[in-house]
Amino acid sequence: MFKNFINALKVKEIRNKILLTILLVLIYRLGCWIPVPGVNAEAFASQIGEDGGFLSLLSSISGGALANGSILALGISPYISASIIIQLLTIAIPSLERLSRMGDEGKKKIAFYTKIAALVLAVAQAVAIVLSFDDVLKGSSNGLGMSLPTWITGTIVTLILIAGSMFTFWLGEKITEIGITNGQSLLIFVGILSTAATSLLTNIVGIFDGHMENLGELGLFLLALILIFGFIVWIDGSERKVPVQYAKQIKGRKMYGGQSTYIPIRVNATGVMPIIFAMSLLSFPQLIMSIFVDTETSKFYRWYSEWLGAGSYVYIILVGLLITFFAYFWAQVTFNPEDVSKNIQQNGGFIPGIRPGKPTADYLKKISNRVTLFGAVFLSIIAIVPSILFSAISNGSSLVNAFSATGLLIVVSVALEFDKSLEAQMLMKSYKGFLK
What we know:
Elements: H1 2-9, H2 12-31, H3 41-51, H4 54-61, H5 65-68, H6 77-92, H7 94-100, H8 104-132, H9 150-178, H10 183-208, H11 214-236, E1 239-246, E2 248-251, E3 254-257, E4 260-266, H12 273-292, H13 299-307, H14 313-334, H15 337-346, E5 349-350, H16 358-393, H17 398-402, H18 405-435
Antiparallel strand pairs: 1-4, 1-5, 2-3
């Protein structure tokens, strides 16, 4: 990966794209530290840290922007949620399914609907955050020496958060357009790395300040982190190759086909989505209750936090079951055996030993279900074991929250995607040079 990056810097066109990408990322990171006028940033960060659930996950993905109470606090999360919702609706609603098969025009319309959904979700999240953290709003002053009622301050904060989310989405689009890889994924990648780097730096500074007893914990933590990263990379590249043979066809004086290829069915084809779905579903009720009920006096909230909150045994079991369910669900979304079988048959291909048509679709579905099971087990292990292991090594340390299972998977996936994009850019440049 590093060799590809160094070689890419030697090519002027690719180097310019990398520099523009870095510039846009720096603008994003600068916005993550600019506080929203009317928000007590310290109280905001304290309340986010005490949550330890869904809000902490959103804060780590945004690079601490949510905990900082910054203008880009919502980050790219509304757009990611909107993309997931639109993809699911594409399967459920026939009109959207037809749009997805209409080529570029259909994709443009779906992209427009995704932007509208992202705006709606940004409004909902901004309102929810302001209602949830109304006690940290500075109702007495807006930072300009003017005394304003709390509701006016809350309205201003809501509008700023919505505008910041849309600006983040625009930055991601620009990175995709003029940069190397997918901009939205890269912004999440940078946010997670910045949160993790801040936690590591804090612990290293603490060691130099005299807390040498933390040196052994930090060493064990980094060793466990390297092993987990290696395990994720190993599984991420694993796939089941289904051989496909294309029959020879003679048309006129030319012969077509006769080649052998394979269909790659990845073990972790669903990526990080099942983990995000499962954790969001379990954390969402607690988030809603924290907005509308008094968390200090509500018995139901305390019961839910104790038995279904993050870290409880029931929570761990439910996470594993929900990840398995969503892994199979998302596999059905991303891989359709009937369509693959139809395409193979239309192109004169067949799987050795399997009859074309429905038997091929059933065979592919059987293999997909088995591979998905291994992928679901892998995701369950990654979602549960690292958190328990990190907590045992560094109990109470900020590193536990910084290196979440979701974050580790996202970092690996985006890094591999960036490396593949660099290789594609360099290969395209080599073809251009050959043609010239």
